[in-house]
From TrEMBL:
Listed InterPro entries: DUF1501 (IPR010869), TAT_signal (IPR006311), TAT_signal_bac_arc (IPR019546)
Superkingdom field: Bacteria
PANTHER family per record: BLL7424 PROTEIN, DUF1501 DOMAIN-CONTAINING PROTEIN
NCBIfam families xref list: TAT_signal_seq
Natural source organism: Nocardioides daphniae
Protein name: DUF1501 domain-containing protein
């Protein structure tokens, strides 16, 4: 699908429109690696019995992986105004240099990211430009799978986050979870347990509702499985423990703390729930959240209108509210924003951008060394020009993993030797 064919009036390629269904089909097969138990709209994938964790709120390091689905244009989010080709290649959609925020001699942030300036000015937000996959891949579905497996050329059939939690000898089903709408990412799938919840209030046993006044249904389920010692019985017992352990998060107050106000979109709702999970101290260390649609073949727009202004505003407002809500707990939370690939350098005829290669990664919160990072490759202005990748995205993730969890990256990114990026303190 290269070069892309763009149809006026369509903001999304056919592949991305279907990618949700395609990913569900792929991930359905991945469930065979463990036992999936469904409670209402919640899925608990369990491969081993959980280990209870009574750590107080904020004691654990937490990493939130926020996926910008659809291939976000890093050149619009973090603008290389110092490269003259940028403005030449985008006569209608280039962000004017005099409107950028957090501007230095070469880079600046899209003004819609202004809500994040307190984090940036406090040295708690970093941008790693020209980052991405080791080789171009313009297919949403294939690129997502490659990005989330993070083991190219390997026979390993698990995601990098599943391997991360697998470093623990006996990980809990609550150690990693997906929050919000959509399918859990392939990064979470593998032999280790994790929790997926569209709404954290739904993390309960099926039938445990207002009509079960005597709590008979959950009691019957526990009795039924209490004597089973096979794999399914062990999985059910682990799921019962997970539901019980998650109770403080499920019943926690919904009102944000510290006067935070979340936007009323899906990202805002998801991050509000993540803040409740962090605050409840149930032992969750890895959380994934999705935000889309960033597949802007048309209507990227400018500073007055368009999809880029809308999406960047949603992203910034939700993240700003999240860190305000967390308050001092934000000192334990690191957010990683990444996308499967970027967009072309030159705009197309429909005020849009077709599939490209390199993009930008954003890091926010605990352990982040603020500022602009990465090696700039320079831009060229032609129909098929890409932002080339000079930083393998795994090098960025490896620094986060090592800095926040003290974990050897060899098990998480097999066969890969990270290059130093310097976006995390001590790395």
């Amino acid at each position: 699908m290269d070069p892309q064919t763009t149809t006026p009036g369509r903001s999304c390629c056919e592949e991305f429109a279907q990618v949700g269904l395609s990913r569900r089909g792929f991930l359905g097969g991945a469930l065979a690696t463990g036992v999936a138990t469904t409670f209402g709209s919640t899925v608990v994938q369990v491969a081993s019995a959980p280990q209870a964790d009574a750590a107080p709120a904020g004691a654990r390091a937490v990493m939130v992986v926020l996926s910008l689905r659809g291939a976000a244009d890093g050149l619009s989010l973090v603008v290389p105004h110092g490269d003259p080709v940028y403005a030449q290649a985008r006569p209608r959609i280039a962000v004017p240099a005099d409107r950028l925020v957090a501007k230095d001699a070469f880079f600046g942030l899209h003004p819609a990211l202004s809500p994040l300036l307190p984090l940036w000015n406090g040295g708690r937000m970093a941008a790693v430009h020209a980052a991405g996959l080791p080789a171009p891949n313009r297919s949403h579905f294939s690129a997502m799978e490659e990005l989330e497996a993070a083991a190219p050329g390997s026979s390993i059939r698990s995601g990098w986050l599943n391997r991360l939690i697998g470093v623990d000898a006996n990980p809990s089903p609550l150690q990693a979870m997906q929050v919000g709408e959509g399918t859990p990412p392939a990064a979470l799938y593998g032999s280790q347990p994790f929790l997926s919840a569209g709404n954290i209030e739904n993390v309960q046993l099926a039938g445990a509702d207002q009509w079960d006044t005597h709590r008979g249904r959950p009691r019957s389920l526990r009795t039924l499985w209490s004597g089973q010692k096979d794999a399914l019985g062990s999985a059910m017992q682990a799921a019962f423990t997970a539901v019980d352990t998650f109770q403080p998060a499920r019943t926690s107050p919904k009102e944000p703390h510290n006067g935070a106000t979340y936007p009323g979109n899906s990202l805002g709702r998801a991050l509000a729930q993540v803040a409740r999970v962090v605050r409840s101290g149930v032992g969750t260390e890895v959380v994934t959240v999705d935000h889309g649609d960033w597949d802007m073949h048309t209507d990227v727009g400018n500073l007055d209108w368009g999809m880029m202004k809308r999406n960047a505003t949603e992203l910034a407002e939700a993240l700003a509210a999240f860190f305000a809500d967390l308050g001092a707990l934000g000192d334990h939370v690191t957010v990683v924003c990444l996308s499967e690939f970027g967009r072309r350098v030159a705009e197309n005829a429909n005020w849009g951008l077709d599939h490209g290669y390199g993009t930008v990664m954003l890091l926010l919160g605990a352990g982040v060394r603020g500022g602009y990072h990465g090696r700039w490759p320079g831009l060229t202005n032609s129909h098929d020009s890409d932002l080339l990748v000079t930083t393998d995205y795994r090098s960025v993730l490896a620094e986060v993993v090592k800095a926040r969890f003290g974990t050897s990256t060899a098990a998480v990114f097999p066969g890969f030797t990270p290059s130093r990026v310097g976006a995390m303190v001590g790395q």
